[in-house]
Amino acid sequence: MTKYDTRYSHSPQDIRNFSTEDLRREFLVEEIFVPGEIKLTYTHDDRQIFGGVTPTNKKLEIVLNKELGVDYFLERRELGVINIGGEGKITIDGQVFDMKKQDGFYIGKETKEVIFESVNESNPAKFYVVSTPAHKVYPNVKISIDKITPREMGDDLSMNKRKIYQYIHPNICESCQLQMGYTILEEGNSWNTMPCHTHERRMETYLYFDMEEDTRVFHFMGLPSETKHLVMKSEQATISPSWSIHSGVATKNYSFIWAMCGENITYDDMDFVEMDQLK
After folding, report:
1. Of 74, 132, 232, 265, which has the fewest beta carbons less than 10 angstroms from its beta carbon?
2. What residue stretch is flagged as signal peptide (predicted)?
3. Which is nearest to 176 in space by CA: 226, 248, 107, 121?
4. Which CATH superfamily is domain 4-272 in?
5. Around Cβ 263, how many Cβ atoms within 10 Å?
């Protein structure tokens, strides 16, 4: 079963007087992984689709033909996948690939069949998927976290020591516009991306996970001069428009998957915000 939600774009002026409930309704996705279901969100910010595929006793396939006006899902799109759950498998145009936790995949435009399954339904795979429009066919590539040399950033003094694993990135594989990666904060660290930045040329989505039940992330968003925040628990996601900062701090260390799309695929194309500009 596929559940499909649509979120529309907003300007900074739109959210100036938003209540907490308004912000959560427009930018937060509170439920990503539902056993036996596909749960996706389509955001009009660069037309990214993101969400969770959680197979249990049956295989699952994303079918969005009518919604996208195409003959099959990836006719005009590319897809990124990272498994954050139990062992699973992906069948891509008849070829089966094992997918352990932290394995990822880039699946290119014009791939007709992508089927997800779990090895053990009592410990199902949790496939986090992100899809963006694509203009060219690039090869499908399986990506394991074990094959990636992480970027080590931050320090204990600033409470932001972390490792950044770039999955769908020019250093790893080719893509049209999708970038996707996995950030792990070290124990005792809780800040991500501070000083913060914006991406005027790209939007981004975040999935926070690997958190204890009572751990909470305070995800900061909005203009640097008018910051707002969302309080999030494990396995929730948020939409970050190009004009918005996107930084977080939590009550304990956590992991998150980031996915970007837009004008370019230059990871370091950021507009940094000086601390004295934040309000």
Report:
1. 265
2. none
3. 107
4. Jelly Rolls (2.60.120.10)
5. 13
pLDDT digits (tens, 9 = 90+) for 102-121: 999 999 999 999 999 999 99
How many CA atoms within 13 Å lie on the side-chain side of 69?
Answer: 1
Nearest residue to 6 via CA among 67, 75, 82, 77: 67
Say if pTM beats, i.e. exceeds, 0.90: yes
Parallel/antiparallel/unpaired status of strands 2-7 and 37-43? parallel
Alpha helices in the chain (DSSP H): 20-27, 65-68
State the CB neighbour count (10 A cutoff) for residue 237: 26
CA-CA-CA-CA torsion sign (54, 63, 76, 32): negative
Q: Is 21 annotated as a binding residue?
A: no
Say how many residues make up the chain: 279
Q: What is the pLDDT of residues 149-208, one digit of tens each?
A: 999 999 999 999 999 999 999 989 999 999 999 999 999 999 998 888 888 888 999 999
Q: What are phi and psi of 147, to 5 degrees?
A: -95, 0
Token reading at 217: 């992330």
Is 169 marked within a binding site?
A: no
pLDDT surpasses 90 at 55: yes
Domain ranges of the chain: 4-272
- Bridge partner list, 97: 90
* 197 carries a ligand binding annotation: yes
Backbone angles phi, psi at 256, to 5 degrees: -155, 155
